[in-house]
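Can't paste images in this forum, so I'm doing it all in text. The chain is below; anyone willing to post the predicted structure tokens underneath?
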Amino acid sequence: MKLTVLTDNNTIIDSSLLGEPGISFHIETENKKVLFDCGLTDVFIKNAYRLDIDILSLDYIVLSHNHSDHTGGLNELIKLYNNYTYLGKQFKLPDIVAHSDIFRSTYCEGFGEIGSLISENKLENLFNLKLTKEPFYLSENIVYLGEVPRINDFENLHPIGIDKKTGRPDYMLDDSALVYKSRKGLIIVTGCSHSGICNICEYAKKICNENRITDIIGGLHLQSCEKNREGTDYTVSAYQMKKTITYIKNLNLSNLYACHCTDLQSKIGLSKVSNVKEVGSGTVLTWD
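Text version of the structure:
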């Protein structure tokens, strides 16, 4: 599997690529091309062009969860498809794989709408939507996990925003991840890990019937304790950080590519028990 970071909060030094507070990965494996998340804007399209990656030949678009820093770029991709249609150019329409509740509206005080800015009805006019809470295999060795069970007592304790349909706090049950089954173990590809990176890893082991996890790449949503605009603690507690570090230590990872919503202090803590690597727009990784 080859993974190219099209969008991240950081950029690699001297890469001449763009960064933004979002995430988007281009994945190639087993004759399949997958776009994992679309970032916030059209940055992933611009960077793909600079990296000579054809994002108009995708087989799948996989969305990790509904937040706009992962789904916002869908609007720009649709504009690109529409322009190509107008010009009479040929392109391939991918299937969209995501949780069945991903297109709900989520409101956060002080931020406004933080969920998907495009509706399911509009998307299904253009794409084949594969919306499911169950695991979905994109190929023999790469699987979308679907809804991740929350099995521990230290992750996903704090909601972010309000689900406007139910009026209840949003615990982001749609948050999911991709797993690649390599010869040496599982590769976890995550967007923000709102469901908890430890929960994600345990579910990946179960679904893939494999206890070895060799690498993790993506946002871990581990940040120093702060107060949001509503005055509630929405970031990681010292207890969660301690438990997560212990869990990651016991995985004996080869590499941990923590990025996006993982802050410096969390990376420093994780680096004491794992091989934390630098990540940014333009990072290219390969696994057998």
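The chain has one domain: 2-286. The longest helix spans residues 73-87.
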